[in-house]
Protein 1
Amino acid sequence: MKALEFREVSCRYPGQRENLVEKLSFSIEPGSFHCIIGASGCGKSTLFRMICGLLTPVSGTILRDGAPLSEIERACGYMPQRDMLFPWRTVGENLALPLEVGSALPKAERNARIEEALADVGLAGLADRMPEELSGGMRQRAAFARTMLTGSSLLLLDEPFSALDALTRVSMQEWLLEQWLRHRMTILFITHDVEEALFLSTSVLAVGSTPICSLTEIPVPLPDRRRRSDLVRPELTRLKEGLMGMLRGQVPA
């Protein structure tokens, strides 16, 4: 059974005449990690909005775990570029949000899950801190923990590290890879950074044109447990150059 499947899906935003997605079909396997790359504005985030149920296709079917989205009650784990932590709530209270919505969990059990999630991302004991007291990387880890608490096996990460400085970004990439290896959730990750895509994913899904009518799957020839030094391998260098050339070709002269 596929973790996610698009069948001849077309979509456009209300008020628009042209489709941004046109008869798109693709699928991903459970436990896989795919990075989606493509030029800015090509419709990558639109795919996430459809998967989350925030945007309804004009035609076609989207399946999660073999069932149409309309029959799925479970929330999808979605993490945008900004951490979106509410500044007036503590870190623990921010993490409690997915447990408060539609949940009848006793407060003690909610707190236990929050503490476990914080420990899992290296933030044990910080539940009472305010978001402003955390560094950028710590805030992103807290946001990831909140995403995990949705209980969804499918995580949608929309450029979550793009606002971080270079060193923190590298650290967070390595941290996320370790999280995936530990939990084996299914991840779709949008990025403009080809090197980030190659380091993180089992395969890259490349948007070739707008409207999006296909995603070209490009396997990454690295083991799941990898090192950053692997990126200088000749086959990875060639793959990076090819993907960069494809992206440059999508940018108007």
Note: The CA atoms of residues 48 and 156 lie 7 Å apart.
Protein 2
Amino acid sequence: MDTKDKTSESKGRRVFLVIVDQTEEMRVALRYAARRAKATGGRVDLLYVMEPPEFQQWSAIGDLMQQDQREEAERLLQDLSSKVYDMAGSFPVLHIVEGDRREQVLKLLREEPGISILVLGAGTGPEGPGPLIAHLVGKMAGRLTMPIAIVPGSLTDTEIDALS
């Protein structure tokens, strides 16, 4: 599910990439990205990374798990697309890929030079901001070609709206 027309659409527009998962901090990042996209005439891209099934012994079971995961991803992205439209006034570009989350994020950033800003929500728990943030701002920070906006996961809608 990749809905793109980058050549005409993204020239000169800021593109805010949000990595989709089921966390509350992702929803904070999504609101921030959508509000910034609306304020700047940009757009939002959503990336959902399906982790490969752990059990590969029985391919039929692995296939069913993968199919279920893809259907869940499509439902979630459909719901989030409506929310982005309500906040930003335009539908996001959707990307669904399979693989390691960190690798797939970096791959998309290499393949899509129109992406301007990576927007991540920071976890608020004792385990820290999250493994993706730790990886990107640690080992990968010097190799990225765009800014990363890290949005505190504890922000309220009112606080996000005031920032954007």
Note: The beta strands are 15-20, 43-50, 93-98, 117-122, 148-152.
Protein 3
Amino acid sequence: MKKALAVVVFVAIAVVFIAIGCKRKEESKGKYRIAVIPKGMTHVFWKSIHAGAVKAEQELKESGLEVEVIWKGPIKEDDRESQIRVVEDFITRGVSGIVLAPLDDSALRMPVKNAVDYGIPVVIIDSGLKSEDYTSFVATDNYIGGRKGGECLAEILDGKGKVIMLRCHEGSASSTKREQGFLDVLKEKYPEIEVVSSNQYGGATTESAYIASENLLAPLRKSDGGLTIDGIFCPNESTTFGMLRALEDSGLAGKVDYVGFDSSERLVQAMRQGYIKGLVLQDPINMGYLGVKTILAHLQGQKVDKQIDTGSMVATPENMDEPKIKKLLEPDFKKWLSE
């Protein structure tokens, strides 16, 4: 039994080293295979990340480099085990580099360390990792984004009232920082705003966020059909959409001041209808683009920054048709993905 196990381990190690040998041979000829691993595959945000990666791939090819971007990730944004398996698979395949949006800031530490130990550099995008093994972190400053959401809602409420926040899910560093930024700015600058609830989680899907939103809103209903609160904040696309559905189904859309995070066609429509008063916007196409460009720069021996901020802006019904805001509200990901 021990001999059989030893053989299996030896074969596994041999496969990895063969893959690494092939990787180095390809890179010496100017060929690069870059794995881009999102948290999920369904939200507009991740499609936009994919579009940015493809945009970078095409530009690099036009410059004469042989670059292949391989896009693969879990379907749902709470499937940590699936994302870990994807990372491990790319290590075995011996890709040149990995661009990763970690689902969990702790659970993905060891897979990233394994990649780096095998000579595969990793650029982290979107959400942080409790590690220093990565080459660069390309993302929105999520804490600042959360503060912007808090400022937006506070200004709409004239600095007073009762609000709630529906969190995303535990382990997501990006949304956790947004949530903290939102709470901190209210505490620091708006003493007349009371946070009634901030400890409920929407989960990783729009459906789970919808159910959590209904449960959160139910005890806040008044006898006349209104709410005992004045404002709501949600920190990502799925919670923003789930809360919107719950408000619409309860006949409350537009009757409470609501600020969310990220964008989609349905959320843009809701803003035009007056159901959403603000959306904190990232630049996911640029994030995917810079993720791939940064890993290529590193592979070619160039110095890259340890952290790159891709920025954020706040869309409101008043500014949503301004060109720079509209570009972020309605990212043209189909141009690059041929959808």
Note: DSSP finds twelve helices and twelve strands in the chain.
